Amino acid sequence: MRNRPSDIDLVAFSPHPDDAELFCGGTMLLAARAGLRTAIVDLSEGELSTNGDPARRAAERTAASELLGLAERVSLGLPDGAIGSSPDHRDAVVGALRALRPTVVLAPYWQDRHPDHAASGRLLREACFFAGVAKAAGGIPHRPERVYWYMLHHPFAPSVVVDVGPVWERRERLLAVYESQVGTNGDAAPTAINDGTFVAMLEARAVWFGALVGVERGEPLLVEGPLRLQSLPELEPAAPMPHPRYRAYA
């Protein structure tokens, strides 16, 4: 079954509320701006976060969802700090895939310093397959057409770099929404991501990956297997840049 009114074009799976926004928010903003139906599935509630009480975190998530223009946002309520520790977790993700029926999935890269991030990537790899197996779990089978893996902390050589320059201002506003997690206010307990250097790293990373393809800002994605093209991107009418930009690769 395809193209139902309730089907989602693009869904990002987020280990904790804010991961999708922090690491692939530009790609999500571009999709919504193009009129596509987008969604985020939060695997956990982020209940182990050092800063931010449940009410504040819920308010931040609501504000981020509105800024992203999401059609839906779902929380699976898996245990923060133990994602992927039970076979039931895969069934929960399969259920979300069958309910939303996305064409494309954005999933966290399966190698990362945070155990939940790495486990979520492995969980998505399995669930995206078994969602298409009729006798696995319940519901009508549905397998996404493509899974793109987004970069969290562990670097990889990207298959594609998405030009997020056109939405970068909104991307920065999206980061600012999660003040309890990445803000530098004096009330928060110090963490590895709220001293200002984490946000600066995201900015520098976007500039670097943008430079690889000759655009202002870029978000890296990894794809397994070849992509189908109807023509070479450089030959498409909208492809030429308005002025030459630095490219790390000629």
Question: What topology does this entry show?
Answer:
Elements: E1 10-14, H1 19-33, E2 38-44, H2 54-68, E3 72-78, H3 87-100, E4 104-108, H4 115-130, E5 146-150, E6 160-163, H5 168-177, H6 179-182, H7 197-213, E7 218-223
Parallel strand pairs: 1-2, 1-4, 2-3, 4-5
Antiparallel strand pairs: 5-7, 6-7
Helix pairs in contact: 1-5, 2-5, 3-4
Detailed description of the structure:
- With 250 residues, the chain is α/β, with parallel strands linked by helices.
- The protein has a single domain, classed as LmbE-like (Rossmann fold), CATH 3.40.50.
- Helices cover 36% and strands 16% of the residues.
- The chain has 7 helices and 7 strands.
- It has a 7-stranded mixed beta sheet with strand order 3-2-1-4-5-7-6, with helices on both faces.
- The radius of gyration is 18 Å and the shape is globular.
Summarize it.
This protein is α/β, with parallel strands linked by helices and 250 residues long. The protein is 36% helix and 16% strand.
End-to-end Cα distance: 43 Å
| Helical stretch tally | 7
CATH topology: Rossmann fold
Low-confidence stretches: none
Structural class: alpha/beta
Tally of structural domains: 1
Helical percentage: 25-40%
Radius of gyration: 18 Å
Largest sheet: 7 strands, mixed
Q: Could you spell the SSE succession in H and E letters? A: EHEHEHEHEEHHHE
What CATH first level would be assigned? Alpha Beta
Strand portion: 15-25%
